[in-house]
Amino acid sequence: MNPQEFEQGFFDWISSLVEVIHGVVAFDGKTVRRSHDKKNGLKPLHMVSAWASENRLILAQLATEKKSNEIAAIPELLKVLDLKGCIVTIDAMGLQKKIVNQIVEQFGDYAIALKKNQGTLYKKVSGIFERAKKDGFATAPHHYTQTIEKGHGRQEIRRYWIIDDKEIIASLNPKGAWKNLRSIGMVESERHIEKKSQKKFATILQV
Fold first, then answer.
1. Which whole number is the average pLDDT over 109-129?
2. Which of these three, 63, 92, 111, is where a domain ends?
3. Which CATH number characterizes residue 5's domain?
4. What is the pLDDT of residue 100?
């Protein structure tokens, strides 16, 4: 079977099922378990997928040789999607100016994780939230919410802060390199299992 023809047929079928894709389109890469073949020198198959959360459908997939190739796969998947009215989410590996620009040019919005792979930007955003937390967000207009989940002897508390102050955002993006950047966010996750507890932090860029 010709893989390109099968892919086109699959995409046409998905398009016929869903007239309009809206809401969150999540991009993620996963290595398929037991897909390697050591005898013939084949590494495990790594797939990058675009998942429509509200429609509960995989819209498109692309195989890559390894996780580091996700950066090249994401723009190819974006090309075949109509992103108008959608929010594209990607992990930190996908935080690239070209990818952000492509999403905006295809009329989509984005929320992308920010980690140390974007060293300068990460330091600036982390610094803003550190200073804001110290003064109780008195100088950083923000939105805040909290969720609590319990079950199986575990409690997880997540706290979310979003800063969309124009001056603060402008200081992060003075030349407009991150197209349509309008807000930054931080997630603080606190997990309690019996007597043990741990905290994690994450930051995001979003339009």
1. 91
2. 111
3. 3.30.420.10
4. 95
